[in-house]
Hints:
This protein is 21% helix and 26% strand.
Amino acid sequence: MNKETNCAVCDDHVQVQRNTPKKLQGGVIYHFCSEECRDRFVQDPSEHTGSSPRRSQAGLP
Ligand SMILES: [Zn+2]
């Protein structure tokens, strides 16, 4: 029973399996294509959990 999603860091396609790297953040489980991406997420979760991930350090208007 495989589930498909996108890596929360690099947006690569990910097939969720038992050994897929994942992290629970703010009540949501994020999946990653690799341990490396999970490490990057853990270092700066807010960078990857925002609603506008492509907007960098935009701040409020
Ligand atoms: Zn990734």
